[in-house]
């Protein structure tokens, strides 16, 4: 049918649901649109209703807008074709003359070429697959697997062959990501192309003959072929396969075979219908299932489904191997089963019943003797010696881990709670607490920075220090970054004190760009001094201070500091000879570096800071004499209106991109499992200033008296001293002892 979807009108009461805008005008669909999710289903049902009036419905097969008419004589074909065309005309549908295939004994229907001799893949698709090069991106690989997977019924063991290619699509990679191609992938790619090129013709199903299913299960896949015997020769009707899930791969072989039988029968149901099915399998799972010797919830569910079918068992001999299977299955839901399974072989009984018992007992063996415990006998230790023994072995082993201490103890001593006691007592070892590092997986996950509401809403400021002194006495750079646009300002200074900071903020930032709502910084004396606090209070600016020794809290300005230093070094190396000039003038290179940073697109916002501030890319001179694009001669009011529109679009895009970036940042750190600190817990605090090479890494213990958030900050005080509110990040603390430790442990 040509433009079949548009032939179905949409009710006027529902037309508003399909409204859309195009070039500042509003439209709506009055006919069924092609992009609607339910359009194929609705049109298919429409064709079903139209073709109900034909005289021979069994001679017509249709799928959505494709109709196949099959008859055994020309006279019948002409008559049936006339009926179908008349019904379609009466319904107001049209046909596409370029796609109509009339009076042929071989037609292409739904991508498959069908004739009296059977079915083969569409030669055009086969030729297309042969010409496809090796995929380099995820999109190209998905396209190749989509074309080949459409013809998977013609490829024996498709799932097992294509498994290396599907490995590249795990974890949902990006569409343009490059593939990590390897020899295994190349072999699978060539095998699929060769298998499709040499695909055999599949027999058209004959409902008068029984169907034969030959099924096998490997470690990773279920493979089956559906055949029918004609003149003593098996001819394939279709190939079926699928990969096993990680859970299914852990099944024993008997359960895998039962899963394969259940899957292939349900998979071929649309072909076999109510015909008899002969199943040939290298195992006897059905007999074991009916006797109740295969355990598990899934297998019991399959068993109830199997017992609803009449079956009988037969032996199939081929090449000296016996394949036992359930044969001639036909639905008989209203009959009782008069079937009793033969006794199973001893090997299968051992596999299904005795192997789990043997595994639970540790695979112990005995030859003409009784079973016994192979470990040496251990001394049952009185309770008074538990702690001295643990501390003794912990000290002589060099304060090793609890697992090592437990290993030393279990060779000679035993008591019921030996493992718990070792863990509890060694968690109180002060020496280990002062030296052992904090495990990576127990660190606090990275959180999200405060998202500003717009340009110049929130600033981050910091000093870039440790720069070589230059002419003029400049040794520091005050860096100011707008968190929304990522616009950067940098000012060389002689000192990094509070008065210098306040002067630059007033003269260079506030008077040029206006007053922000928030300023974030570290706890340096140049930011927490009274002059800065007073100025911010008078200007209604809220100050936020980050945790000490935690540069991640000021991640944006710290990242710009690194970029600034690196760019300055590159500019100096390019323009001067460091070996000759001992003190390069980085002040002169600073302005050019700032221009380059402002013109570079930021990955988070996907715009350059200059674009978000001015609404247009930064004009840059071209070295080849290419003329710069001339600006349109706008009037002021017209330019202002266009600038507002452009800025609004870019700022909204940047805000959206920043939200996505923070979300991905939170996801990427989610595998960490932070410790949940509670009030009253004892923790060790990381030392930031150590004296000498033998100083400890941690100090304490300290007591937790408050916390802001479950994993972010802690307020601690040292035991035996007045409590002080000292805030630290969760990664700077580690648990020393749990709150629920008993007095018995302290003793």
TrEMBL record:
Regions crossing the membrane: none
GO biological process terms on file: DNA integration
Keyword Transcription: no
UniProt keyword annotation of Acyltransferase present: no
SUPFAM superfamilies for this protein: DNA/RNA polymerases, Ribonuclease H-like
Coiled coil: none
Residues of the Reverse transcriptase domain: 1-114
Domain Integrase catalytic: 451-617
InterPro entries: DNA/RNA_pol_sf, Integrase_cat-core, Integrase_H2C2, Retrovirus_Pol_polyprotein, Rev_trsase/Diguanyl_cyclase, RNaseH-like_sf, RNaseH_sf, RT_dom
Domain of life: Eukaryota
Keywords (A to Z) from UniProt: Multifunctional enzyme
UniProt EC number: 3.1.26.4
GO molecular function: nucleic acid binding; RNA-DNA hybrid ribonuclease activity
Family the UniProt entry places it in: Belongs to the beta type-B retroviral polymerase family. HERV class-II K(HML-2) pol subfamily.
Protein name as catalogued: Gypsy retrotransposon integrase-like protein 1
